[in-house]
Write a structure and sequence with these properties.
Blueprint: H1 18-24, H2 29-32, H3 35-70, H4 74-102, H5 104-122, H6 128-154, H7 162-190, H8 193-202, H9 207-217, H10 222-230, H11 243-277, H12 282-309, H13 312-330, H14 338-354, H15 359-366, H16 372-387, H17 389-406, H18 410-420
Helix pairs in contact: 3-4, 3-5, 3-6, 3-7, 3-8, 3-9, 3-11, 4-5, 4-6, 4-16, 4-17, 5-6, 5-9, 6-16, 7-8, 7-12, 7-15, 11-16, 11-17, 11-18, 12-13, 12-14, 13-14, 13-18, 15-16
């Protein structure tokens, strides 16, 4: 028996009038179209994902210092990323179920609190084993935040603007990354390495400020919440593996695995590559990362527009190819050509981020409202977990191939993503309720 509300329970026509359509076509038309409640939801998701990014990057940026502090080899440091991403699959799947059962905003608050608490705890770790456990627990919150925040905003956004709206949310990852790079440069310039990496983790307490605001100001999208509340199967894992959704779940998980395998290979190992193989100082590494992050920010925004214009699948295909090419070129720049490393960091950051811009809208559109959180949380974070094999492989290959040579392994992930699209439909223009 259908649990969908009768047509009269929903707005009869969500299309803008001609004058409104013209106003919504400007550079920030997508933001105006969200309305006051939607803009607050956007701010909460944007801030949550930016701080999620900040907390994540405290580890890669501090990797060299904490490796020296605990006497770790490349394989052991690569395991930090693998553990974080594997546990994030569990956290993301649980957060998706929570989002369908208790609401998007409540689930968002739980994820932000979790990743903030355990990021701070990492700064107090007395040894490698304890740090590994704390980083794993941080992954529980890290895994769920994006999926929940993306769904919250997607259910406010119109079909016409959803790609660029979620692309803008995705761009907050670059904002958090940039903030982490700035703090890293300052902390490691004024504090000794043995203490500096701990200070980086302690600054992960910043999300506590966001929690207070979100709790007071953000609410779930009313129409989607009504549909979800009336469903008898909300938050059901079994539902996303039934014949109607099984194909979607398998191929969406494979798509997430490929894209995130390539991305996290770079996110984890580029700072180490710049410092250990290119011989850059702390300030130099921060400067080079500035180009990479600037490209990433613009890539998210550009990819968001293109996913609305070209479609979800074409956008991902385009940037999977370009990202693989960029990795191959970036990792094989001749020694001594550090200026070329600087220049090519921009297109590398641009392409590997533009491919993500369509994820928030695409995964939201692949699943019905009652299991949207479950489906998106599971497929996105399963991709993180399986994709975690890529940076770990780079860590073990780095001793024989060098970090730069091993980075090419990340390009394989983008090939996997391109193949996965063959099993998924195009969803541009789909209404969510």
């Amino acid at each position: 028996m259908s649990t969908t509300p009768p047509p009269q329970a929903l707005p009869t026509d969500t299309r803008p009038a001609p004058g409104e359509r013209a106003a919504d076509d400007g550079a920030f038309g997508w933001l105006r179209a969200l309305g006051p409640r939607g803009r607050r939801a956007f701010a909460g998701a944007f801030g949550g994902y930016a701080l999620d990014s900040y907390d994540y990057f405290t580890l890669p940026l501090s990797m060299v210092a904490l490796s020296a502090s605990f006497g770790l080899d490349s394989g052991q440091t690569g395991l930090f990323t693998t553990v974080t991403l594997v546990v994030s699959a569990v956290g993301g799947a649980l957060a998706g179920v929570l989002a369908d059962r208790v609401g998007r905003v409540r689930a968002l608050l739980i994820t932000v609190i979790t990743y903030a608490v355990f990021t701070v705890a990492c700064g107090f770790a007395p040894n490698y084993e304890t740090l590994l456990v704390f980083r794993a627990l941080q992954g529980l919150g890290f895994g769920g935040e994006w999926a929940v925040g993306a769904i919250l905003v997607a259910e406010y956004a119109s079909a016409r603007h959803r790609g660029r709206t979620l692309g803008a949310v995705q761009s907050s990852w670059a904002v958090g990354w940039a903030l982490a790079a700035i703090v890293y440069t300052l902390v490691f310039s004024f504090v000794g390495d043995d203490l500096a990496w701990r200070v980086m983790f302690w600054t992960g307490a910043l999300p506590a400020l966001l929690v207070v605001w979100v709790r007071r100001s953000v609410r779930d999208a009313p129409e989607a919440a009504a549909v979800r509340e009336q469903s008898a199967v909300k938050g059901s894992f079994t539902a996303i593996f039934k014949p109607g959704l099984l194909r979607t779940t398998v191929f969406a998980g494979l798509l997430s695995t490929g894209v995130q395998g390539g991305y996290y290979t770079l996110a984890t190992w580029v700072p180490t590559y710049l410092k250990s193989e290119r011989g850059l100082s702390v300030v130099g590494t921060g400067g080079y990362l500035g180009f990479l992050i600037s490209g990433a920010f613009l890539g998210y925004l550009t990819g968001g527009h293109l996913t609305d214009r070209l479609g979800r699948r074409r956008n991902i295909w385009l940037f999977a190819l370009l990202s693989a090419i960029c990795i191959a070129v970036y990792a094989n720049i001749p020694s001594g050509a550090n200026t070329l490393v600087l220049v090519l960091g921009f297109p590398l950051g641009f392409c590997m981020s533009a491919i993500f811009s369509g994820f928030g809208s695409y995964l939201s559109e692949l699943y019905p409202t009652a299991v949207r959180g479950t489906g998106q949380g599971f497929t996105y974070n399963t991709g993180r977990a399986v994709g975690a094999v890529f940076p770990t492989t780079v860590g073990f290959l780095a001793d024989s191939w060098g970090v730069g040579g091993a980075l090419v392994f990340g390009a394989i992930g983008y090939g996997v993503a391109a193949l996965a699209l063959l099993g998924l439909p195009e969803t541009r223009g789909k209404e969510l309720v």
